[in-house]
Design brief:
The chain contains 11 helices and 17 strands. It has 351 residues and is α/β, with parallel strands linked by helices. The longest helix is centred in the middle third of the chain and has 12 residues.
Length: 351
């Protein structure tokens, strides 16, 4: 397919411009996709505005839905006009982790939108193994939330929630809101949602949280331990904050399980009481990274498409803004400087 497309191109730190560029060309094993909706991920903010990207120029965007417009000669999984989403991680398939089927912790992976051009453009290419068909009944807005929803599934799978258990979600950003919905699906009878933003807590209740706590107004650890008579069986830390990481441990009952999902970019100093709680309570702490398992891209992707199609994972309710390509630079700046209030922001290419 020949011609030009519009894209939001990151030329250097804090320097994003919408320009015309060449529509990418598929190799024999790739698929060309017309983007419908692309989400701004929290990780896009530091890449664009704070720490910088792996390479320049770069088109960001790794959470997206779209339609196949062209396929390479060897592509058999999809065909033109198929409605699709893309698993953006491209594993090296050569490292020890890949050989064990642990693709999410591949040593030499690429990620569409970070190591190669992504979906803040009218068109994007992806290897056929990364392209997944979605049912006609699943709308493109919801489908743009599949990638972040897989993160929550992958995290909770590690802590083996049993029906009837209590789960705490520390942090009600997009990943937290999706994780709390998975906690209900996995069988939790009571889900606590903890955040410092009342609007996000209101949304958490709509999405299924049974009890919400504003930790800027109430001692969350004390309140959780009072209500549960000793803490929750499972706590998922999704805020990526050293304060909530410590609160997560202290909110867990003896023999309970903690999973760290959020990235704090800071040191975690555990006080004496927290360390003693880990030891005396025999608390298990797990890390969770990405969402990819064998067979690639893994059960998290299959489950998310299934449950979202059935209406059991609600992403649309989480979308606070739908913007255009031309708005991306201003919104990333506002997100980085915390001058705009938002929940989940989607870039629309839908005619």
């Amino acid at each position: 397919m020949k011609g030009k497309m519009k894209a939001a191109i990151l030329y250097s730190l804090k320097n994003i411009k919408v320009d015309w560029c060449k529509i990418p060309t598929c190799n024999d094993n790739e698929v060309l996709i017309k983007v419908k909706y692309a989400g701004i991920c929290g990780s896009d903010i530091p890449r664009a505005m704070i720490t910088g990207a792996r390479k320049y120029p770069l088109i960001l965007g790794h959470e997206f839905s779209g339609v196949v417009v062209e396929t390479g000669a060897n592509v058999t999984r999809v065909k033109p006009n198929d409605r699709v989403v893309v698993a953006p991680l491209i594993p090296c398939e050569e490292c020890e982790c890949c050989k064990k089927g642990l693709f999410g912790i591949c040593e030499h992976y690429n990620l569409i939108g970070t190591g190669s051009n992504g979906a803040f453009a009218e068109y994007v290419i992806a290897p056929q193994n990364n392209v997944l068909k979605i049912p006609d009944s699943l709308d493109f807005v919801s489908a743009a939330g599949i990638e972040p929803a897989t993160i929550g599934y992958h995290a909770l799978e590690k802590v083996n929630i049993r029906p009837g258990e209590t789960v705490v979600i520390m942090g009600c950003g997009a990943i937290g809101q999706l994780t709390l919905q998975w906690a209900k699906i996995f069988g939790a009878s009571t889900v606590f949602a903890v955040d410092i933003d009342d609007a996000k807590l209101d949304l958490a209740r709509k999405l299924g949280a049974d009890i919400t706590i504003n930790s800027s107004k109430i001692d969350a650890v004390k309140r959780i331990n009072e209500i549960t008579s000793g803490g929750a069986e499972v706590v998922a830390e999704t805020a990526g904050n050293s304060i909530t990481q410590q609160q997560a441990i202290l909110s867990t009952r003896k023999k309970g399980r903690v999973v760290f999902v959020g990235i704090s970019h800071s040191r975690l100093h555990l006080d004496e009481n927290t360390v003693e709680h880990i030891l005396r309570g025999e608390i298990s702490i797990r890390g969770s990274w990405n969402s990819y398992t064998a067979p690639f891209p893994g059960i998290a992707w299959k489950a998310t498409i299934d449950f979202m199609t059935r209406g059991l994972i609600n992403f649309k309710e989480m979308v606070s803004h739908v913007i255009t390509l031309e708005d991306i630079a201003d919104y990333l700046k506002g997100m980085a400087e915390q001058t705009i209030s938002y929940n989940k922001i989607l870039v629309s290419f839908d005619d």
